[in-house]
Amino acid sequence: MAKLVRGLSLLLLLICSVSTQWVSGSVPKVSAERIRLIKEIQERLNVSFQCEFSISIGDTRKYAMANSGGIIIVDRSFLQNADRGRIFFAIAHEYAHAYLEHDVRLFAMALDQDAAPTKSAVEARRRFEKEADGIAARKAKEMGFSIDSILDFILSQPDPEKGIPFEYRVYSKPRERADYILTVYHSS
Ligand SMILES: [Zn+2]
């Protein structure tokens, strides 16, 4: 079981690989205000998703990560340095992955396939990322988080898949991703 959980966590790392590295020499302190913020986000998302997920603080070297057991880990440096909209979006995106059990579904697909990642696995990951973005955009609207800071979050990231042909990309290009999020936000 522990092996399976480790395997699933590793897969999640792949699902949500975002390029920015949050590496720091010392462990940054998280303020009481930020702790309250993630508690507030956790409570509101749990009510909205009708689930009992929990958010922890860790060093993820990206914004946040999750597994379908309902453990969300938000990166300590990101939590301390980003604004409310960015933090909400990163967490809500991970909630969507966890709620829809994207890691388990990818794991099942991987077991069904031979060693090399196939085009259909990439397509599934792309679909899951878009799905998580759409759900996070709707939750942001519902809960009053700023779309401007979410768009800025997406557009200010370097493209983690720059130069990769479309058929192998998991994420849309930042501009397309932001446009999709904006469309869902305004249509919900
Ligand atoms: Zn993701």
Distance between the termini: 39 Å
Number of domains: 1
Which percent range fits the helix content?
55-70%
* Uncertain parts: 5-24
Describe the protein in words.
This protein is mainly alpha-helical and 188 residues long. The chain has one domain. It contains eight helices and three strands; from the N terminus they run H-H-E-E-E-H-H-H-H-H-H. It has helices at 2-15, 32-49, 76-81, 84-99, 102-112, 119-143, 147-156, 174-187; strands spanning 54-58, 64-67, 71-75. It has a three-stranded mixed β-sheet with strand order 1-3-2. A hairpin with a 3-residue loop joins strand 2 and strand 3. Helix 5 (102-112) packs antiparallel against helix 6 (119-143) and helix 7 (147-156) packs antiparallel against helix 8. The model is unreliable at 5-24 (pLDDT under 50). Zinc ion is lined by residues 15-16, 93, 97, 129, 132.
In short:
This protein is mainly alpha-helical and 188 residues long. It has helices spanning 2-15, 32-49, 76-81, 84-99, 102-112, 119-143, 147-156, 174-187; strands at residues 54-58, 64-67, 71-75. Strands 1-3-2 form a three-stranded mixed beta sheet.
What is this structure's SSE topology?
Elements: H1 2-15, H2 32-49, E1 54-58, E2 64-67, E3 71-75, H3 76-81, H4 84-99, H5 102-112, H6 119-143, H7 147-156, H8 174-187
The structure holds zinc ion (ZN).
Zinc ion binds at residues 15-16, 93, 97, 129, 132.
List keywords for this structure.
single chain; 188 residues; mainly alpha; three-stranded mixed sheet; 8 helices; globular; binds zinc ion
